[in-house]
Write a structure and sequence with these properties.
By secondary structure, the protein is an alpha/beta fold. The chain has 13 helices and 13 strands. It has helices at 4-11, 13-19, 41-48, 65-76, 88-97, 113-125, 139-147, 187-203, 225-238, 253-257, 259-264, 283-296, 321-342, and strands at residues 26-29, 32-34, 55-60, 80-86, 106-109, 131-134, 160-166, 174-177, 210-214, 246-251, 277-279, 300-306, 312-313. A 6-stranded mixed beta sheet has the order 10-9-11-8-7-12, sandwiched between helices. Strand 9, helix 9 and strand 10 (246-251) form a beta-alpha-beta unit.
Amino acid sequence: MVTGQSRLRRAFPVLWSSLINEQERVAMNDDLSVARTHNDSFGHLLKRCEGLQPVICAIVHPCDSDSLLGPIEAAKRGIITPVLVGPEAKIRAVAAAQNVDLSAYRIVPTAHSHDSAAQAVALARSGEVEALMKGSLHTEELMGAVVASATGLRTARRISHVFALDVPAYPRPLFVTDAAINIAPDLETKAQIVQNAIDLAHVLGIAQPKVAILAAVETVNPKMQSTLDAAALCKMADRGQIVGGLLDGPLAFDNAVSEEAARTKHIASPVAGRADILLAPDLEAGNMVAKELQYLAGADSAGIVLGTRVPVILTSRADNVRGRLASTALMALVAAANRARKV
């Protein structure tokens, strides 16, 4: 598989050498060596999972090698206890082709992908599983079952998605939201998206995450709704309507992640240049930012759906092993926090 990191390595070998320490390469399995950045936020994620009780996770329709092998690898590392939800004959055929022994794992047989999504959500509603992981079905199929008003996993909080990015050139983990679920969020929705991301950062040990509210400019322009929303969100944080984070905006992308760019534009802000969370103005902008960081800046990516009764992982066919494991680690830490709140 050709990853963003491998493309960066080939295109800019000198830059790559300055970013990656050869001594920090670790084998994830027999045929894959993954380079860690100096920050190595994904390695820290996996480290934080050590000693946690494995999360019982429904793997929804794991009917190809990637969607089956990823959870099995996470199970071997003690992060999850997978429950395989899908057509049993297909799952066993994939396992046989990959020489995987499924005797240790529960299989919940289903008729087809829509049935897999419905049964996995039912398992979560009944408390039999603590998380869901997307397999080889379409995202819309799984999320359709998750958001169903009567039978899904909705809570009082808005459902949103957070990308966690390990960017070689950035000195800390970077979270981008929402790039997968809310297409054109209004102010109220953005406030809940921000709160979801802040709560995730707290679970990961970031006590007061810095939130940059992105727009094309760093000044309030009455003709640009994104700048008005940014100003309103900052005032909502001042009034305690958004808690646990430090917000600033509007900020253009360069001012959010580059202290030099912020200084050049004379922006005095504790967030500018040091953002932990980037709030996108809409799904298209967020998706572009996340994928540009992956494919042009060599970032590894993990992701999680929040605001649901249990955490949900939406894996992509383009995800590498490191990204899949990091997504699983995110889910495990959120599930552990959910457990602690119930005690």
